[in-house]
Amino acid sequence: MSSALAAMADSLDTELRIRPTDPRLFAIADRVVAGERLSPADALALFESDDLIGIGALADAVNRQKNGDRVFVCANQHLNPTNVCILRATCTFCSFARTPREDGAYTMTLEEAFHEASLASDTPVREFHIVGGLHPKLRVSYYEDLIRGLKERHPGVEIKALTAVEIAHLARIEKSSVEDVLIRLREAGMQTMPGGGAEVFAKGVRASIAQRKLAAEEWIDVHRKAHGLGIRTNCTLLYGHVESLQDRVDHLGMLRELQDETGGFLTYIPLAYHPDNNELGEALGRTGTATTGFDDLKNLAIGRLYLDNIPHIKTHWIMNTAMVSQIALHFGVDDLEGTVRRERIYHEAGAHTPEGMTFGEIVRLVKDAGKRPVERNVHYDEVRSW
After folding, report:
1. Domain 70-385: CATH class, spelled out
2. Residue 141 phi, psi (nearest 5)
3. I want to staple 201 with a disulfide (CB 3.0 to 4.6 A). Which of 86, 216, 233, 286 is the partner?
4. How many Å apart are CA 215 and CA 373, to the nearest integer?
5. pLDDT tens digits, residue range 320-375?
6. pLDDT tens-place string over residues 310-325
7. Dihedrals phi, psi of 358, to nearest 5 degrees
8. Maximum CA pair distance of the chain?
């Protein structure tokens, strides 16, 4: 081991405050401290273990070495321009989508979208997060005009927009390439992409919960193309439904492999499945029963340990609750999401958290966890800290 690696291992060992008690994790802990990459078998052992505190301590040590006591927060607002979606009948886990004539279906005009964006004028917003359904008629020009209009009305605000599934859908409508769509949106002002639509990459799971959605390889390829154009993106895993622990490991492995190739992922966000108001929840008999805090914390911590090449791990407090998300700041997490303002997608699925928080509430949550809040932009450059 080189002197630099030895110093890094010593530093990590110092940060490790609690050793795992599960014997299956002893060798894994040694590899983490030595700075070695974990294997798929290691990841499966972590998912199978009930030693949550030991796993969390390992993730916390790695995170402290990377980020110290920093926790990134963002003054952001979610915009969902439409919930009309051609996959309404086949994405059984989704509570947000509607058919065009179904009760509750909506598609915002540009002026309606600009009005909703203006409602956050009481708080300086740095990021608009734009995702929605796969509308059968909206063209790329709608999203170009939306992004340009937001940039004109909110100078300095950055745009994170459209999942890989939405990008591929627009390419089909336009009869053009994914690259052409990405270039048009980038020129309109889109700077990064969210990581939604990945769900779980396993073919059997996708056939069960998202039959007509992009295949795993197609989702990966859209992100590969975005990275090649200089567009950084996020990545996700939807957990807590019908997937196996091995499915989770395989999914994370595909994300890690693409990151080795491109280095384009900014953040990994494990997304907790919510079962209310969707077909999958009814079929599973899980209505009203979401994931446990135990599984939420474990997925976040394992993301930090296994995705060693993705710099940031985010807890989405809308899904995990503010309390669990605050605890997660000691389980390898360095991003607490943001103010969000008006979240629709997870609240349609039964989330009981607020639709948004004030920036002051977010900062206080971080401080009360003994961490240092840092306001970021979309590329994780520090804007200010406390």
Report:
1. alpha beta
2. -60, -35
3. 216
4. 38
5. 899 999 999 999 999 998 887 654 444 344 445 455 788 889 999 999 999 999 99
6. 999 999 998 889 999 9
7. -75, 160
8. 66
